[in-house]
Amino acid sequence: MANEPTDTAEPTEGSPAHDGHDHYWYHGDKAAITRRLKRIEGQIRGIQRMVDDDQYCIDILTQISASTKGLQAVALNLLEGHLAHCVAEAQTSGDPTAAEAKVKEASDAVARLLRT
Amino acid sequence: MANEPTDTAEPTEGSPAHDGHDHYWYHGDKAAITRRLKRIEGQIRGIQRMVDDDQYCIDILTQISASTKGLQAVALNLLEGHLAHCVAEAQTSGDPTAAEAKVKEASDAVARLLRT
Amino acid sequence: MANEPTDTAEPTEGSPAHDGHDHYWYHGDKAAITRRLKRIEGQIRGIQRMVDDDQYCIDILTQISASTKGLQAVALNLLEGHLAHCVAEAQTSGDPTAAEAKVKEASDAVARLLRT
Amino acid sequence: MANEPTDTAEPTEGSPAHDGHDHYWYHGDKAAITRRLKRIEGQIRGIQRMVDDDQYCIDILTQISASTKGLQAVALNLLEGHLAHCVAEAQTSGDPTAAEAKVKEASDAVARLLRT
To answer: How close, in Å, is residue D53 to chain A by CA atoms?
Structure first.
């Protein structure tokens, strides 16, 4: 899982998309993440066709498990990059409150993933 | 685990795709299931746009959790119908081997859902 | 969701604890289920020792994952038996309301397992 | 979830338990973590009694879900502390390889939790 930092332009402070987050680390991974999401989108459409064609429920459940697994792989990829970049940046910033908030936020995101 | 696509809208009795399964119970729920899957498909496309727009990882993770939850709701809906129809049919058929196989198959499907 | 403890070893037919459920199917599996639960109990105690000995968090997390997996295996075992016995009994009883209630109950139990 | 760093003795370098990890952050939380694990251990013993007393499978499944949820809460607590201390320490150490390894390790631990 390569989360190599991007070498493309750092967005300027105050740009609309920026809002204080350094969330551009995944620029480099964008193509890969998008490819995976496109594949998952295709799987969801495939599941719709299976339902449409009255296919066997267990086979549909198997496909749903596969799509869920795919989504979790994307989530883990994003989480790893987030820890390596956004959380790391907060932790090296010398602002303990910001660092703590980032860790809490990441840990809450993991809690949401676990609860699904 | 045969997930072979069928291009027939309604396999005739005894057609290879039918293979003895009464998996048409969800005919009545089809519209609802399809609507939910369409919404999930839209969410996945939304996630692609979020990645494209360099949105904040944590927000993307939140959307992934929501899509996963949506997929699990569809899975639970299908499972409930499967137990109420396909498994019930096997259990009232008087063929204990068939009934046992159906229960094992449903329980394996739950195991796959849990492991994702 | 009645979890009332019963202190009788074997409730007599019609005793309040029996309440019409044929939940004795796992009598035969009891030794195996109990052995697994004892092993999990031992793992939990092992985790306590790891915390006590200041062991590395990641190693503790690995043990927690193993215990969770163990609990899910017990749950799947119980679920499979429940479908094969209690749900089947309701479905062959000729009482569609009872059968539907059992399926709903089993499916809700799966939902709770998925959400943990 | 208070993961306040401990002010108790930092273990000396080279102590047998140390092995290069700064995993003592949870010293301060130890009492709370241990209390939770003791409660989970009690729940597991309660489940054994439920099986022993032939209680209803669905009620047992409900208890298993509760124990699993308890274990996940402990895991999230440990993970949060781990990110706030061990991972942060690696990230501020100025050794990018060590930092990357810690992030990968944490993210793999989350993957294991998700897969259970």
So the answer is: 31
Residue D68 near residue C68, CB atoms below 8 Å: yes
Torsion of CA C15, C17, C22, C25, to 10 degrees: -110
- Asked if B13 is an interface residue toward chain A (Cβ–Cβ < 8 A), one would say no
D74-113 pLDDT per residue, tens: 999 999 999 998 888 888 888 889 999 999 999 999 999 9
Q: How far is CA B9 from the centre of its chain?
A: 18
Q: How far is D99 from chain B (nearest CA, A)?
A: 20
Q: What SS3 class is residue A18?
A: coil
Residue A74 CB contacts under 8 Å (≥ 6 apart), including other chains: A33, A36, A37, A40, B47, B64
Whole-number mean pLDDT of chain B? 82
Residue C93 is given by DSSP the state T
Asked whether the beta carbons of residue C3 and residue D75 sit closer than 8 angstroms, the reply is: no
The whole-model pTM stands at 0.81
Asked whether the ipTM of the predicted complex exceeds the cut of 0.85, the reply is: no
> CA of C114: which chain A residue's CA is closest?
A116
**Cβ B113 vs Cβ C72: under 8 Å:** no
d(CA C76, CA C105): 15
